[in-house]
Design brief:
Elements: E1 2-3, E2 10-11, H1 27-31, H2 39-51, H3 60-73, H4 80-107
Antiparallel strand pairs: 1-2
The chain binds zinc ion.
């Protein structure tokens, strides 16, 4: 699988021009991209977002929200989909505990 060195989109084997941005590609600069960008950040976001549903470590969802936002705003991130999932998981787990805390606070009045 090859990726455009300019915009990061997937390009066809043997293509000389990227179809999404028009960047001229040759085999040399295609092979320069070994590791698609953004994978680590997106994975961190998903992991912390999921961990955020457990008690006591829900603070991790803040990490998930930050890494998710950074990942989505990174134009060269090849894992924007995963970053979005991470962000929604994190926002979901954070709001989940926020609601529980509010209910607990209200019921103790
Ligand atoms: Zn391109």
């Amino acid at each position: 699988m090859n990726f455009c060195p300019n915009c990061g989109k997937e390009i066809n084997q043997g293509a000389s021009v990227c179809l999404s941005c028009g960047h001229a590609v040759n085999q040399e600069n295609v092979q320069a991209i070994i590791q698609p960008r953004g994978k680590g950040l997106a994975t961190i976001s998903v992991v912390f977002g999921s961990l955020g549903f457990y008690p006591l470590i829900f603070i991790g969802s803040i990490v998930g929200i930050i890494t998710g936002i950074v990942g989505i705003n990174d134009k060269k991130n090849m894992y924007i989909g995963r970053s979005k999932i991470g962000l929604w998981l994190s926002v979901g787990s954070f709001s989940f505990w926020l609601v529980i805390i509010v209910i607990a606070a209200l019921s103790s009045l």
